Amino acid sequence: MSKALRGLSRAGWAALAWVWLCALLLCLPASARAQQLLAPGVYGFVDTVEYDSTRSMVRITGWCYDSQNQQLPKDFLVRIGDSEKRVAVPTRSKRDTVAVHFKEGHTIPLGFALELRYPRYLEGGPQPVTVIARFDDGARFNVNPSSPAAGQLTGPETPGRHWLIAAVVAVAIVVLLLPGATRLQRRMGAWIGSHRPAVAGSIGVLFLVLVGAGATGSSLELLLGRSDQGAPHTFLSADSAVTHLAGQPRGVRSDEWMVVAASALAQANHQPPFPVVNRNLGLDGENMMVIGMTGVPVLHISALARPATWGFFALPLDKALAWYWFFPLFACLLALWWFLEVLAPGRSGRNLALSLLFCLAPYAASWSHWPLYAVFFPSGAMAATLLMLQQRPGIRMGWLALALGWFLAGFALVLYPPWQITVATLYAMVLVAWLIGNRRQVRWSWQTPLAFALATALLAALLYFWWHDARDAIAAMRGTVYPGQRAALQGGDLSILVLLRGFGNADTLSNLQGGVFNESEFGSYFLLLLPIWFLCLRQIRAQGAQPWVLAACAAFSVFGVVFVVWGVPLVLSKAMFWHYVSSSRIDLSLALASLLVVALLGPARAAAPAAVLPAAPRTATVVLGLFSAALAALVLAGIPEDFHPGMTALFLWSMAAVAGLSAYWLVHGQVGHSIALTIVVYALAVFDFNPMGLAPARVALAEPVRGFVAGPAGADGIAKMRRVLVVLPSTSHAMTLAAAGVPVVDGVFYYPQPSVWRSMQLPASEQDTVNRYQHLTFVQEIMAAPATYRVVNPTPDSVRVLLDPRRFDFATTGAQVVTANAGVFEFRENPHLRLLGEHEGWAWYEVAAAAAR
Fold it and tell me: Where is the signal peptide (predicted)?
């Protein structure tokens, strides 16, 4: 054979090649027959079944088509184990490898992707998976797996954290059931009552120790970087990083670390520091006195009423940041304890435990202690008011009056109406009820009206000076589309299940992933409303301590529930100023009302030990305990899986046991047991939510970045920073630069910056797009000429400028330097930009017009 092949002439080789080509052509019809159209019918297979543990989601892919009726499935039924769920809107895609078998199959999205939650309470391990396609004509088709692996799923086992929660709860219950538990609580309460100054002093010393160490639970490392991750931040020097100690930073708390804390740092690094209007934030600058919650440091007389910022004026930066973080926690703990001591004297141990319980709650942790700051001021004001009403003439009356005026001014400058209005409503009702019930104990002297006048004068003076320098910014905020012109609210937009979502916070606060709510929005309190209402009625009938105050607390909590679940007439909502209150922000005042009720449980004067009170009839006690346990179980089971993914039977029954026993002990008179068990649950929820680290002693630019940003030296020989525009979908890097004292174009603004929009010649028809509180970002997008930019609102509180990196004139924004991802090379085609250099993946450009100037 080989000889024959070697003997072939050139013509012979050509003939042989022709034969092979003919044979190949003869084979082509057989290949075509392998891909011929399938007979009309329903076809389909499941290709993959996967479980995403980070989102508690099952993802199923495959394809299905009814070629006879030329229709795709309208929806799917998915059975996992013995649980069946409907997926109404599958994600569809084209399947080229399958399309060849159907007429015009390349135009039909034959593929599907189904996403659904893994069924609650279904045990882990291998579970069979069945997929049924349903069509518009009512037909069903079992979509068989293409392989054994596509017909089953290995489900998740009960998470280890749920076993830990159950174990800790069980140990706590066993300890509280020990014979000596009640006696220990009684002794601790008595010791605290006889050493109140020492205890308060110890709390203050602990606060100062944390401040001295520069400790913070802020998620600032997302803004400044971490010292244990090499370079702390691409824009900052290494010593600007947070020293990480424990936990993980929470991106969801961006309004704390990226807005308020970043603005505070921007004030500290401004030249000169702590201005009323920070000229580094936007072309027009930003009035910093309109920032609410803890506020930011401003060298202004109104700063006297913003004690959380005092550390910036007197302490190194790391200590100031520690003061800034911990002040709301410790201040609320002491002020609330003081108020409870005045309202319910003789129960120091219980009052301190209740204050600790309130400050430890998931709601406080999930909102970076800001709710505590909002309660600190009115609690101190209530304590001062009640003491003034019982005080004999003397110098102490004057000090109480000054304290009252200061507390009220601080409360007004929190500038967050949903919390201010609801807490003020509760405390106003409590004050009126106290006056009615204690009218014989009120000591009205010639000094009393003078003291209240002094308090009013101090309040008016502080607020006048604040308003005088903030009124233009306030007017701009009130004129915005968001939040200035939001529709009036009247409640009725939350279910009772969501109102009582705090039953699940021991799991959700640190582990809520892939849910409809974020961790902060889902944070709440372990509310036992039914036992609280029962105890109010029981104590009022028994003429116990402060029956009028108890009635006020009960009336407030009932109104709060009605407002949240069913709503109230708009005219009533406006009359009470509750049209500014979102239903999701009422948790704070409801928990506070419940706390006041528990503080007042017992006889008119605390003759009995605080831990043990006269018990209700055993039948009522058992029934309320069982009912509370059942309610907690029903709430946890009834909350949609998209709200609380990852729920397990073990966790549900653990929290039901906590609710049942807490209610039982509360009604039975063992208040200390109930408080202690709730503290354990709160501690489980919050211990790893906020990180712990050491704040930096300074925030400064990295040297290469400083070289890009620095302008020519002035007459004093100091180079001023040029204004920077950061091209990025997030404001985080712009706020990092602002925190380091760099002027920026983009960032977070409480009211619009009109100069930039005038310079960019934004059409009048788009003014509402930018007239809002905003996270202002600039993002590149290639667009057809002549357009070079467009403005959109991805969310109500964000403004995004989409710009063409090749043609947009950055000089119209007021920017002198632009920085963007070094991988976006289109910026280098822009005639208005000149490349300065690159650093850590970021390219820095000088704006041509700015260079010419």
Answer: 1-34
